[in-house]
């Protein structure tokens, strides 16, 4: 392309971010800005979505300045994208401030506000906003239902979840896959596995997300054998699992003592499906080995994994040391935790107690 104009710059930025090449999209946006071309509202919304995907808060704030300079400060679509970026980056107050500054609050703004509170763990605020949205005359849609049901799941508010399920049915959103999988999770978290099964069985066309949610529900309720059977059934149906499916499966195996099956699935994940395990997958395996009493194997796993470990994976092993009363290993593991998370008070207390027992010539008591 011999010469780029504003339209081609905008198309290039939007194209990268649309296909989730967020870093490349932001890089092209910088070039565009340096070259003196003015972005349009669609480009700015896309760039903000890219910042949200990368959780690049400082870059997002710079783009916010660009939004104001370009005169899109009260633009509804750009404003909603701005709020979404702030909330996705964990800055809920800044996101709410953007929405409050908008001249009118449309459905997109309401959904952004509700989803932002849900993502940041403010479940009670989500339910309050949901009521306010309906009072303001807006009807919930599939995006609203996913956020609100997720909050019911986190709060374990079964009654509220059942009421919203009734609203889902009335608005014909009960066939939407995202809503179905959220309903499965909500009922499971509220202790109603049979209702999760009912929702899953009534789903006309279950996709991978629904299958994974149901596998996770079985695992959450200690029904590891059923989780494994469902996975095998899913494979026979021709659905190919992804990293989330395997995470649900490994969680089920770890909470049900299915050590051999868990290790088998980790191997299947890499060998058959070519999926690279992340730190969460390895944490499940460490938990599985730890619960089975294989503490040395669990430690060796942490030290040999090709991904960078975090404090959580070491804390998982520390919990296993407590279960099996292995004070010597607990001391070493607690020190590893504190290297990664110096503020972890539980590890300090544990180390202090172990050292006090050793100094007094007593055997450490858990």
Describe the protein in words.
Pfam families: PPR (PF01535), PPR_2 (PF13041). By secondary structure, this protein is mainly alpha-helical. The protein has 4 domains: 104 residues; 96 residues, Serine Threonine Protein Phosphatase 5, Tetratricopeptide repeat, CATH 1.25.40; 72 residues, no CATH class; 83 residues, Serine Threonine Protein Phosphatase 5, Tetratricopeptide repeat (Alpha Horseshoe). Helices cover 73% and strands 0% of the residues. The protein contains 21 helices and no strands. The model has no long low-confidence stretch (mean pLDDT 93).
Q: Measured on Cα atoms, how large is the radius of gyration?
A: 24 Å
Uncertain segments are none
Number of strand elements: 0
Q: Secondary-structure element sequence?
A: HHHHHHHHHHHHHHHHHHHHH
**Number of separate structural domains:** 4
User: Helix count, per DSSP?
Assistant: 21
Share in β-strands = under 5%
The N- to C-terminal Cα distance equals: 70 Å
Overall mean pLDDT: 93
Structural class: mainly alpha
The rough form would be described as: globular
Percentage of residues in helical conformation: over 70%
Biggest sheet details: none
Keywords: Repeat
GO biological process, one term: RNA modification
Protein name: Pentatricopeptide repeat-containing protein
InterPro entries: PPR_At4g14850-like_plant, PPR_rpt, TPR-like_helical_dom_sf
């Amino acid at each position: 392309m011999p010469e780029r104009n504003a339209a081609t710059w905008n198309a290039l930025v939007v194209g990268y971010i649309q296909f989730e090449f967020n870093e490349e999209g932001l890089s092209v946006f910088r070039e565009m800005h340096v070259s003196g071309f003015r972005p349009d509202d669609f480009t700015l919304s896309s760039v903000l979505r890219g910042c949200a995907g990368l959780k690049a808060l400082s870059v997002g704030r710079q783009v916010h300045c660009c939004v104001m300079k370009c005169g899109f400060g009260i633009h509804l679509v750009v404003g909603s994208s701005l709020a979404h970026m702030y909330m996705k980056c964990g800055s809920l107050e800044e996101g709410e401030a953007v929405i409050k500054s908008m001249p009118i609050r449309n459905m997109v703004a309401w959904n952004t506000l509700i989803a932002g509170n849900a993502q940041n763990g403010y479940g009670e605020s989500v339910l309050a906003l949901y009521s306010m949205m309906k009072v303001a005359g807006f009807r919930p849609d599939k995006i609203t239902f996913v956020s609100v049901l997720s909050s019911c799941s986190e709060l374990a508010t079964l009654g509220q979840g059942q009421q919203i399920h009734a609203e889902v049915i009335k608005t014909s959103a009960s066939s939407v896959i995202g809503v179905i999988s959220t309903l499965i999770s909500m009922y499971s978290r509220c202790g109603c596995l049979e209702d999760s099964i009912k929702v899953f069985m009534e789903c006309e066309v279950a996709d991978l997300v629904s299958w994974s949610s149901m596998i996770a529900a079985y695992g959450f309720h200690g029904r590891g054998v059923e989780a494994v059977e469902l996975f095998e059934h899913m494979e026979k149906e021709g659905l190919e699992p992804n990293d989330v499916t395997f995470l649900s499966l490994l969680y089920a195996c770890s909470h049900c003592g299915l050590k051999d099956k868990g290790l088998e699935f980790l191997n299947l994940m890499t060998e058959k499906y070519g999926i690279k395990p992340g730190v969460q997958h390895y944490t499940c395996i460490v938990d599985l080995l730890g619960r089975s009493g294989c503490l040395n194997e669990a430690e060796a796993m942490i030290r040999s994994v090709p991904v960078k470990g975090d404090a959580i994976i070491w804390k998982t092993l520390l919990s296993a040391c407590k279960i099996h009363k292995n004070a010597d290993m607990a001391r070493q593991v607690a020190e590893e935790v504190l290297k990664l998370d110096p503020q972890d008070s539980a590890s300090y207390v544990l180390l202090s107690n172990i050292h006090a027992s050793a100094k007094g010539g007593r055997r450490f008591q858990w």
